[in-house]
Amino acid sequence: MSFDNQLIHTCTIKPAAAGSVNVYNNAAKAFGTPVTGVRCRLVESRERVWSTERQEGVIQSVYKLFTKADVSSLTEKAEISLVTLEDGTTLSDIFRVTELFVRRGRNSHHKMATLERIS
Fold first, then answer.
1. pTM of this prediction?
2. How far is CA 72 from CA 15, 68, 93, 111, 112, in A?
């Protein structure tokens, strides 16, 4: 089965862009033009449960997103939204790319991004 057959989801990618500074002279978030309908695959890779006696339990999920290598809009700190799953449901969560890896053979094969869920 080819890699293209594994990309069963679609998503919208807002690439991170060089932004301006805010009133406090800190870098402000800025995004480029969103790219819609990108073929991808979203996978929940691991889940960590934190719990102590003094606070409520917290569940942290780590996600991975796979795309073809020619998707240039997928960069670190990009935002991923509107992920449509194989059954047609659309996730309303927004994810941020924390790490980006380009998997290579003799040339670029695909990109794998580690995501954190924002909402």
1. 0.80
2. 9, 9, 22, 10, 13
